Amino acid sequence: MKIIVLVKQVPDTETSIKVGDKSINEAGVKWIISPYDEFAIEEGIRLREKHSGEVIAVSLGPDRVVDALRTAYAMGADRAVHIKVDNYVPFDTNNTAELIANFAKAENADVIIGGRQSIDTDSSQVVVQVAELLGIPHIAFAVNLEINGTAVKATKEVEGGTQTVETSTPVALTAQKGLNEPRYPSLKGIMTAKKKPVETKSTADLGNPASKIEVVGLEPPPPRIPGRKLEAADANAYAAQLVKALREEAKVI
């Protein structure tokens, strides 16, 4: 079984983000694997342990993403592939999906797994777009997965509960928290990962799809307006003040 796991490198949630003109200022940013992608890596490794085959960790972006791929190696991935994109636009999920789909097609992948969403752009789009481009089934928010031969059975989260679906490989799916418990890389795994080769693919190697999105500006949200405490003698006076504020200041009624 050939399993591709998608690994995205994102800023640590505790990092102070400074916004530049068209992108964030990366100086001083601590980068991590997007947490949901850790569930994807773990599930890929478990599938290999059960069915044999290989797990290929794939990450797209500039040279710094190699660190994320080495973490995937340390967790147990068999191969690591860096799709090198220096001017990476994380908002262009279609371009990302095209590059990954072209790679997956060349590898004849049986299973493609990504996290349910990345914690930077929160789009939840890449894996479903990969599935659409390849013409294969897609299962979102998986919390349980069983594969027997080519038969696939998965339980996925839906609003208000869960749903069990069945399909067949090749298949693409996104991992939700609860699918598994990601393992910690061992010291031996970390040391070994430093010596393992990371394959590099250029956009030209993968069909050179053109980006359809241009970032023209990036700015932080406006500062939140401080709250105001109403003071009145009774409930009727409070209500009158509130209605006046909603009508004249907030202009919502």
From TrEMBL:
This is Electron transfer flavoprotein subunit beta. Residues 21-210 form the Electron transfer flavoprotein alpha/beta-subunit N-terminal domain. Signal peptide: none annotated. The keyword Transport applies. Heterodimer of an alpha and a beta subunit. GO terms for molecular function: electron transfer activity. Gene3D superfamilies: HUPs. Belongs to the ETF beta-subunit/FixA family. It comes from Leptospira alstonii serovar Pingchang str. 80-412. Coiled coil: none annotated. The keyword Electron transport applies. CDD domains: ETF_beta. One of its GO terms (biological process) is carboxylic acid catabolic process. Its cofactor is AMP. It comes from the Bacteria.
